[in-house]
Amino acid sequence: MLVAAISVTVLAILLLLAAWRDDQKISADMGTATAEVLSAGKLRSAVSFVTPDGVTHNPELGVLYPTNLTSGEHIDVEYSRTDPDLVRVAGRDARVAIIPTASVVVVTWAIALPALYLDRRIRRGRASDLSVERAHD
User: Fold this and answer.
1) What would the pLDDT profile of 54-70 be if each residue is shown by its tens digit?
2) Do residues 50 and 77 lie in contact, with contact meaning Cβ atoms separated by under 8 Å?
3) How many whole angstroms from its chain centre is CA 72?
4) For the whole model, what pTM was predicted?
């Protein structure tokens, strides 16, 4: 249980750091465009936009921070000019991932700590039962 809780916490923090790194890459060489939302989901939304050189981009992994988008909607996006497949909804950054990440970590430990405590009490009870049995033998 402890290993699982630590693993979930580390993965959540790594995801937040990866989002921050992606934001840094976008901000370092940022281009802006208007994109059409092709499909919208809670975890992934597909967009299509045209860069100033006339090339249409459909990022394979979708747009970063896709919350509250609707198919057919036109939105402003910010992208890395060196890697136009790295694109986010304009005005959004890794800060929008802080609350969901913190929530995952809090819920994980809210489940793990009582479970670990209960497991420890059960193990102590068994150990004391064994010592009482041995004393009687």
Assistant:
1) 999 999 999 999 988 99
2) no
3) 25
4) 0.76
* Residue pointed to by tokens 């975890």: 43
Pure H helices in the chain: 2-28, 98-136
Rounded CA separation 16/100 (Å): 10
Cβ contact 59:28 at 8 Å:
no
DSSP string spanning 36-60? EEEE--SS--EEEEE-TTS-EE--T
Buried b (16+ CB within 10 A) or exposed e, 44-67: ebbbebeeeeeeebebeebbbbbe
Residue type, position 17, single letter: L
Other residues' Cβ atoms within 10 Å of the Cβ of residue 115: 14
Do residues 15 and 104 make contact, with C-beta atoms less than 8 angstroms apart?
no
Question: Which residue's structure tokens are 């919350």?
Answer: 67
Which stretches of the chain drop beneath a pLDDT of 70?
Answer: 126-137
